[in-house]
Amino acid sequence: MGGLGPEATLDFFGKLLKATDAQTDQGHLHVIINNNPKVPNRHASIAGTGPSCIPALVASAKALERAGADFLVMVCNTAHAYEAEITEAVALPFLGIIDVSVEACLEHSPKPERIGLLAADGCLETELYQKQLEARGVECLLPNPVNQRLLMDLIFKVKANKVDDDVRDGMKCLAETLIEEGADIILAACTEVPLVLKTGDVTKPLLSSTDALVAATIAYATQDTEIV
Q1: Residues 204 and 216 placed together within one structural domain of the fold
Q2: pLDDT for the residue 202
Q3: pLDDT at 224
Q4: C-alpha span between 54 and 60 (Å, rounded)
Q5: 180 lies in which domain range?
Q6: Please, what's the b/e burial string for 25-62 (b: 16 or more CB within 10 A of its CB; e: otherwise)?
Q7: Can you give the pLDDT at residue 47?
Q8: In the annotation, is 123 catalytic?
Q9: Distance from the first to the final alpha carbon of the chain
Q10: What HEC string does the chain produce?
Q11: What is the pLDDT of residue 223?
Q12: Active-site option among 76, 105, 123, 140
């Protein structure tokens, strides 16, 4: 399930290809992508200030089911606020980006005590990461309201394909602020963030939710790993 936004979907697919151990075309995974950028704004949907995105998300999932998909992934963190509605509408397993990213954080060595979250408004409002991480004894550090507004501005610039040095520097600055506040690692918990913020750009480890989903997708597709 893609298009949320399109470049993040492209990033996921490109990383999936590079991470797959394939020597020929036939060694790659059969991937069906429903790149639907017409899904309404997830943040407005969650806040109740815009149309619900549930019908469009459910329609995307059903289309993939009809197309023959064996399981679903969705390249958007915030849209996982509607994971229950999606899974209720189809008979397919759903490999959630929140779950696999949380596990990636907890498996990091040394295990972090505090994680800095760079996530979009709707993701933070629904506490998709906070609930899981704090239940596992990990503190979540969030940008202050001013910095969160800056982060959203940067995310939408990425979506508008307006990435420049100012956007990259701004994203690094937001991450470093969380590090200064005590974050042991930074989690790029929005799939637009890894498009500009890369490993080595900040002074603490950076984990990408996109990378976590890529690894989990390959593991599930090639090793028949169960989705719990």
Answers
A1: no
A2: 98
A3: 58
A4: 10
A5: 98-209
A6: eeeeeeeeebebeebeebbebbeeeeeebbebbbebbe
A7: 96
A8: no
A9: 20
A10: CECCCHHHHHHHHHHHHHHCCCCCHHHCCCCCCCECCCCCCHHHHHHCCCCCCHHHHHHHHHHHHHCCCCCEECCCCHHHHHHHHHHHHCCCCEECHHHHHHHHHHHCCCCCCEEEEECCHHHHHCCHHHHHHHHCCCEEECCCHHHHHHHHHHHHHHHCCCCCHHHHHHHHHHHHHHHHCCCCEEEECCCCHHHCCCCCCCCCCEEEHHHHHHHHHHHHHHHCCCCC
A11: 85
A12: 76
CA gap 27, 71 in Å, rounded: 19
Kindly give the parts of the chain with pLDDT less than 50.
none
Indicate if the alpha-carbon torsion angle 153, 159, 208, 129 is positive or negative.
Answer: positive
Query: Are 13 and 80 contained in the same domain?
Result: yes
* pLDDT at position 100: 98
Catalytic-role residue among 105, 123, 140, 190: 190
- Residue 118: give its domain's CATH number: 3.40.50.1860
The radius of gyration of the chain from alpha carbons, rounded to an integer in Å, stands at 17
CA-CA-CA-CA torsion sign (139, 144, 148, 154)? negative
Residue type at position 35:
N
Q: Is residue 228 part of a domain?
A: no
For the question of residue 190 being annotated catalytic, the response is yes
CB 180 within 8 A of CB 110: no
Q: Are residues 113 and 175 in the same domain?
A: yes
